Amino acid sequence: xxxxxxxxxxxxxxxxxxxxxxxxxxxxxxxxxxxxxxxxxxxxxxxxxxxxxxxxxxxxxxxxxxxxxxxxxxxxxxxxxxxxxxxxxxxxxxxxxxxxxxxxxxxxxxxxxxxxxxxxxxxxxxxxxxxxxxxxxxxxxxxxxxxxxxxxxxxxxxxxxxxxxxxxxxxxxxxxxxxxxxxxxxxxxxxxxxxxxxx
Length: 199
Ligand code: GRF
Description:
The chain is α/β, with parallel strands linked by helices and 199 residues long. The protein has two domains: 1-102, Rossmann fold (3-Layer(aba) Sandwich); 109-199, Rossmann fold (3-Layer(aba) Sandwich), CATH 3.40.50.170. The protein has helices at 13-23, 43-50, 66-79, 96-101, 125-134, 169-193; strands at 2-8, 30-37, 55-57, 84-87, 106-110, 138-145, 155-162. 5-O-phosphono-beta-D-ribofuranosylamine binds next to helix 1 and strand 5.
């Protein structure tokens, strides 16, 4: 069985898309072994619980140093012997030490067509606000490998989404999630599990 560890910080709709894709057989031969949140009480943990998936909050704010926090996360992932780490709305930086332990085994989703509207500070609604401000007609989402620079790793899949007149950041965010994120994240994971992707 291919083992996946998912790191989250919030609502977990992308986590849900992955849970559903395993449940309905789109992704075969894989399981989510652990869901880790850096915050307590986030809805993503409840989603994991409801699906019967082992889950834990390792509250980053309880640690004096980021390294101490991340060590705990890594320990948990190692205990579970995960083959792939999926950052699904995870709002913490991943250190170089962490990346070195899992080369080409950490993936992230970003709600724009990289290299547009990405990098430091581009997360959540801000991405969509900037896309609307710039007046792009097409935006989308990107699944990529995680390397040291924010949103700089090799791209795995992208999907375009139309920007419509009168879009607000909230409306655009929802369309990007529904039409792109929840589609290409499971797709990327399926390709990795089936080993049909050359990094
Ligand atoms: C998504 O827009 C994702 O692209 C970004 O953070 C958001 C997380 O949403 N990295 P959710 O927690 O999966 O609902």
